[in-house]
Write a structure and sequence with these properties.
Four copies of one chain form a homotetramer. Chain A is α/β, with parallel strands linked by helices. Chain A folds into two domains: 132 residues, 3-Layer(aba) Sandwich (Rossmann fold), CATH 3.40.50; 208 residues, Dihydrodipicolinate Reductase, domain 2 (2-Layer Sandwich). Chain A is 33% helix and 25% strand. Chain A is globular, with a radius of gyration of 20 Å. The model of chain A has no long low-confidence stretch (mean pLDDT 96).
Chain lengths: 364, 364, 364, 364
């Protein structure tokens, strides 16, 4: 059966932590998803030749390149995957779109709303994806299904936190993620972008928001923490908080939803679990149910292992690719795409303006 | 309305930790339960005059006494409550029964099965109670209700642990609870007796068992730990374990039940919660539900506070008294009584014989 | 020893749920705390004669009264305890102060900041207390001790939620708590006042805040939910959220603190536990520790039961009285008093103004 | 750098669930571990031609074969991996050893102790491995490290459960795992073998045990559940329980250890976490610590993702291979090998004999 598959050559720009995660996903997607493509890890591109070679060797990239423009001009490349610092997302994406490639891009999509809009315009008509990988956490996909089935009813409250402690560690706080010129923002683009995308995905659009940001280290260029209050168009209200100073938390990406018919609660640190409270049960049997989202009848459970056998962080990237290539084969659109990321960028822009102006900002 | 209540004078033998717990229950039962009796804390009896006076003063006992025989002979006493070391249970209970008193006794009822049987015979016809207080934990009462309604189906497994670390602390290990002549046994009578009573209460009789005991401190007279495998008459199988050497556990009294239709899990350290897994739900909605057993529609929730407002250890004693005096007023039997405690004592006797003989012992 | 105790006669205005809780505390404080007073439950006052009589009988109040002014004028009363609807707090407290009584008052202290200030002025020089009972949850008292010892270091984040679902239940939403004229506000006075007091108690003063309120039921007079962002004077930032529409939550009163040296997490639904993350441990041994705050060496553990034996909601009221009367005997001030409650009321006032003006409000 | 790696051709016998898990590990080991070998997935062998082809295609096996003997006779194969039903383990392993292959075998190693001993003898001198994959759960490896460092002190109690509900589902209960002729036993070989291996790994040898087995479905050939009490040579006592009738549990593989200095607790359903209670802390700071074993300084954390980013079931197989090939390159022995599996088989044999004879069986 392999011979009937179309080969797609992938070029990846970036070779850090997230580059390894993407490499893994390119290798693994065909093992877990039945897609009519064979992905070939053609070339990985980066600036540090030594690290690049080691990475290419470990992760099975056929070749390496230090100039991303050279990569994009290669006619043998069908897919350009952007895993480089934020400042490079726009130039690479625009060039890749110009060259007619399939474009995959890490979040946050851009350094500004204007950049994001230009990028979305550029990839219009080309298959594209933004790595808001958490949508493919099985528990989150199942939460969305429950919401869409009406199992939580009318939403009253949406509560989101994304808590890291990475900012307090001087050793980890010196990279590009802490430089405004390369990252654009701090916790906002890095963490809050994920939270906002999930908020939209699970609870719809935000009407207006009121934000604040804070930088605990005086000389630091970017925000260490960002928080906002929100009104959603569905009538619910919400809080969002993202921080790199949340000591005690490694990757505590959470949401809670209270609706007229039930509650949902999720924490990425226990990503195979979803808490569900069914308020339509008999009162004395109402309780927070710990659902293990590993099957049966859970999203992606037929792709991975047996019920009770958990998956990890990397599988959210694999599932993202699985769905992306499935959609590609069926000539369907895929989400989250650049347009979805523009919505997130618009919200982040509103967050920034609100924090500066110390006032509510409308998103309508 | 108070004037219509009948006054019952209580004499309590013993004034240690558990004596304080009983005192509290005598004071509080009328606040939380509508019973037609007014309990008067008439006399408390103990050997240490100084401690006894302090205790009487703090807990509102009208008088004190150092000779328990003198207490029992008093005609103004209607209720004798035995909160003394195990070795005294039988002589006091027999005397109190002889004097026609209502007899309440701490667990384990006796030092031996023979003693227990004699005591049960003696109190025959008299209202009596054994302080297996855990039956009145609201979560346990609710677990029993779910089992009786068939919500867990046919039981497959019963798993019980009662884990303390008190035995490893030399400061706490010198009291009467560690002397064979006063306590009869160690973890067995102190902890396992509770577990066995709950096992019978929730899962019925045991057919046969295979036990072992262990004493970690060579010079110690009583068992530090006891474990047994069991076959229940309902066809299920079980494990029981009680220990005073379970470092990390203060009062971890747990049970788990797996049945054809569901699972129940309880831990006394979170006594207001009961975990319930409903295996009749749709497969993708099956999960362990954390029920907060504080109402509505939970046992004793109308007696204590509002839903979400938890109760503590002492309330199990109050509820025991509430039910006891309710039954007394209605001229009904009450459980757990001395007969129930004889069943527990029979099981403990089998445990001891099994541990010594290293063989299965039948309980039929 | 009892004879040496001074008798203090208590009058309580109000006989609902919280009146039962106070009654219990008056009865129990002497059992658990060594105080040189004997509290006598002299008279309970309320408007519904039938319910009042039943309450007095059940909880051992010597007499009843339907006119609170008559109660206050009685010379045989030393303590006036206000457990009536919010609108009555000020008139009763002012009259009681005028009469020179010891005044205890439920939260929120007043209907407005002005009222609160007048009340605080009136009780100046008289022993007084506001029932912010959660300060005496042993786990919260221990959290404060850890903070004060520097175990959490410089605070970065303070996160508070107080989540109820009571507002969604029409049967429970018709009482005085939902009427502006009697309650003043909704979730704000009822729930958020507790959260703000704890915030001050644990993390110090707030510099400025930005709030929003929301009422989900159009015809309802008071706020169903209230949220705010805050800057504390210690340099940390925080979020507060209180709601009666948090389906799935009965009494989820929580806080989380992230500091440079550690994290603390508390949830009233598991009030005997405190989560502590010590960031000064070796990296591979850092984890969220579940401390069972039942002793040894925990606040109030010598007052109640043995380690591992949990207490409940009511004990926070008992401990409040225990500390209050201890301070009274030592001629010391007690907190939280009316002045502390004025600070809370000032914050609530700022919350209201911020929500209306949709802008940041300074608390300096 | 890739060119310097030695290619090893792998043949895998079996293509079911566990075959997919092994295939994944062969592909992935080189991505996460720095080993001087390139594994080539040469041939997969199975009886069902259609399923075999699909599996080979999906998982990238170069060829297929339906006769395992033909596979073993191929000179181009260096590694034979046995993922076939238990009854085939011995014949395949013996043939593969005879052919001088590196032999990897699923657990339980054999149908009987005699078979296991013959197999261990046959592979003597050849690199070999038994897939007791749970040893490589990072949390379990870290538990072992803590034990070996003395952080738990002298062990008092070891408690193990391995709970499944698969046996209650008729749809899942018809395969070879439920036939005595193909599986040898039920829960015993399938689940308990893992538990016993972990028990030995973490707590050392067992001196004697007392077991019982039970089959809930009368016509079923194998045990649905097995339990035993044990004495370890280190002076501790333990309980083991494995069941396929534990409704509510998908893969609840747990252990708890109480020692003089601390407690450890693990549950495979939350495999990235290890609970640790340090009894040497100040009493008021002692609590069960939830360690997230994803780094820093945790086993395998440098191989997989960043701290806070969890891994899943499959990674335990990858880490097993990583260590195996690392040891191979260093010409060191590897554990668990066939000899380790013989020890497990000896214990299972004792369990069977004890259950039949209803008596204690010595393992010395």
């Amino acid at each position: 059966m392999t011979e009937r598959k179309q080969t797609l050559n992938v070029a990846m720009i970036g070779h850090g932590f997230i580059g390894r995660v993407h490499s893994n996903a390119f290798h693994q997607v065909g093992h877990f998803f039945d897609i009519p493509y064979k992905l070939h890890l053609k070339v990985v591109c980066g600036r540090d030749r030594t690290k690049l070679d080691a990475m290419a060797s470990q992760w099975g990239w056929e070749g390496t390149e230090t100039d991303w423009r050279a990569v994009i001009s290669r006619p043998d490349i069908q897919i350009v995957d952007i895993a480089a610092p934020n400042v490079l997302h726009a130039p690479i994406a625009l060039a890749a779109a110009q060259a007619g490639k399939i474009v995959l891009c890490e979040k946050p999509l851009a350094m500004s709303l204007e950049e994001a809009e230009a990028m979305a315009k550029a990839v219009d008509g080309l298959p594209n994806l933004v790595w808001f990988n958490y949508r493919r956490v099985p528990a989150i996909a199942f939460a969305r299904a429950l919401i869409n089935e009406g199992r939580t009813g009318q939403t009253f409250h949406y509560r989101s936190t994304y808590l890291h402690q990475s900012g307090t560690d001087p050793a980890r706080a010196s990279g590009w993620r802490f430089k405004r010129s390369e990252a654009g923002s701090g916790a906002m683009g890095d963490l809050l972008s994920h939270s906002v995308d999930l908020g939209f995905h699970l609870n719809g659009a935000i009407t207006e928001l009121m934000a604040m940001t804070h930088t605990f280290v005086p000389e630091r260029e970017v925000d260490d923490a960002v928080m906002f209050l929100a009104r959603f168009t569905n009538g619910s209200i919400g809080t969002f908080e993202a921080s790199r100073f949340a000591v005690g938390c490694r990757n505590r990406n959470t949401f809670e939803i209270h609706g007229s018919r039930g509650m949902l609660r999720f924490n990425m640190e226990n990503m195979n679990q979803l808490e569900f409270y069914d308020a339509t049960e008999a009162p004395n049997l109402q309780g927070t149910r710990n659902l293990m989202i590993t099957g049966p009848d859970h999203p992606y459970s037929s792709n991975f292992w047996k019920p009770g056998h958990i998956i990890g962080y990397e599988h959210t990237f694999i599932a993202t690719l699985g769905d992306f290539f499935g959609a590609l084969a069926r000539h369907e659109g895929f989400h989250p795409d650049f347009e979805d990321a523009v919505l997130v960028q618009r919200a982040l822009s509103a967050v920034e303006r609100s924090a500066v102006s110390r006032s509510w900002v409308s998103l309508k």
